[in-house]
Give the backbone structure.
Amino acid sequence: MKDGNRTREVDLLRTQLHRLVEDVEPRPDALPRLLANARQRRSPWRPLLAVAGAAAVAAAAFVVAMPRLPGQQAPEPVSVRPDSYLAAPEPGVITSFDVLSGRQNQAVARVNGADTKVLATDGDRVYTLVSTAAGRRVVEVTLGGGQQVLPGNVGDGRLLAAGGGRIAYLDGNDVVVVHAMQQQTPQQRIAIPPELRVNDLALAGDGRLAVLAGRHDSRRSLVLLLAPDANSLAGHVEAVPEASCGPVAIAWSGRDVAALQPVDCGGEQARVATYAADSGRKIGAGVPFRTPPLTAVGTRLSTDSLGRFLVSSDGRGQWLVDGSAIRPIPPACTTGGVCTPGPSTFWS
């Protein structure tokens, strides 16, 4: 074999190995052995077999090396993320379910007195509401089993949102935003005009707030988009859907906001549209899919780390929206046949 050809073959194999395992190197003698075998025969299939063999050797090296990577955390159970969602099929029991099969995985936490219809997630933390002698409070649950009751009474227990280390809820006509990780930080209170009803809240990872609101005498709603440190509606951006009814639920999807809305007010179809948070302009119409009539009360939209949406309603069905692929998924029911009365939510 000529030196030029040998050099090209070495470079090709080394590139393939690094693409397969990134920073994990194969055994020191793997490449010379493969090249020696490749030089023994001139079959046109030999380079492909050599690459496949290199991949196998590299994969073996990767598997052996993984337990010895410094500072690596223990892997999360596959039943927790990313292919699972949370629901509360029994009072106070927050449970993980497999997205595609609906199979019950495990109980994540037991919270005495928790409202099974109100759940919010922020990374590996779960939030729910409990009734105490001092009033309705937010409880934070970690995957390690820790729980803490956060200060502050929650006036309206219908809505709870979490994101970016903050939580948001309703208190009368005000939306209250609290730093869950920095409880000494003053809370934000955004007054909502009394002629508007608030149907949903969503917090982005950078603290931006989305409020789904509409007039009491109308089925139409719009999305109010506020800056992370807003204390009023001044300077907010509006996303206004064209339909004369809905949306019924909202969620952040990266830097954009997503809205679950009916295709038309009298039909049984919905779509998840997306809007640019900086302008309110629609940037994605969403693929229509068949649903029963959905209402703001009892319907939740959430997104996971893969950019998929979970549309969940209380007793009306659940759907996984993955781009243009729409898939109905089973209800969240335990192995004992107890099904969740309220909507479910993805890990955020």
